[in-house]
């Protein structure tokens, strides 16, 4: 597995992140350890969890004992720690401080490599969040920061504030991204590319729909899914079928093809993969060795229509019209 730098930092992160959301206390500790071992052997170094993922942090804290520094450990705050306490949730300073201290204890570490804001909190000023994040970075408790599930304008404004005031900017953005959920291509991915922000893509298998589970394909098609088969639409089946078709043509599994697609167009996108066991994880990690041809990409993306919408489609039409920017604009843009 190859490595890239996280955003505009010097931190080296693997092409694929490992999601430990499914690690829970009382589960299968030997299997959890086997998954981390398999991920490390493959060259992976980013493990992603959150304060709201049950006992995942505590389980990871035990499993990483003695090798914690070899990993880029990422966790999140924002979601409620106590539903009866109005200040036990949100992106404000009080929740950040208490959530971070709890995560540090549970993870058995004195610092977090990558601390995510779990989602945008409309009720907390961005200035407060960015300043509070910068404070914990300066205190050495957090090394880098990112944000998950937020509009493009929020990320842009937050990083502008950080630049103007000398605070730590967001180096990463976490969003849902798969062949069945391409909304991020409208604003979020272009913004991330322009600002030099790395993207962690969650749900690359669309809850298991693209794993071949419902299409009869793949060696590991029986993997876990959070989707009720009865809710699948004709579009879902069409895309899943296209994934199985390309998988058969390339000799890969459907899961590998679906994960490889998330990386094919944008080199700064890092899919987050999880698994039920080490064998399934190894299969998913095999996506890094899958190269999709232009024909395969057309097959996958042609299975279901996706419209960027305004302003993307309107601006593309304007750029193609010589009456707007002149005859030489297209050659200039391509240079």
TrEMBL record:
Please give the name of this protein: Aldo/keto reductase
- Reply yes or no: does the keyword Cell membrane apply: no
Domain named NADP-dependent oxidoreductase: which ranges? 17-302
Q: Which InterPro entries match?
A: AKR (IPR020471), AKR_Detox_Biosynth (IPR050523), NAD(P)_OxRdtase_dom_sf (IPR036812), NADP_OxRdtase_dom (IPR023210)
The organism sits in which domain of life? Bacteria
Gene3D superfamilies per UniProt? NADP-dependent oxidoreductase domain
Keywords assigned by UniProt?
Oxidoreductase
Oxidoreductase in keyword set: yes
Q: Which organism is it from?
A: Nonomuraea typhae
Its taxonomic placement starts with: Bacteria, Bacillati, Actinomycetota, Actinomycetes, Streptosporangiales
One of this protein's Pfam families, by short name?
Aldo_ket_red
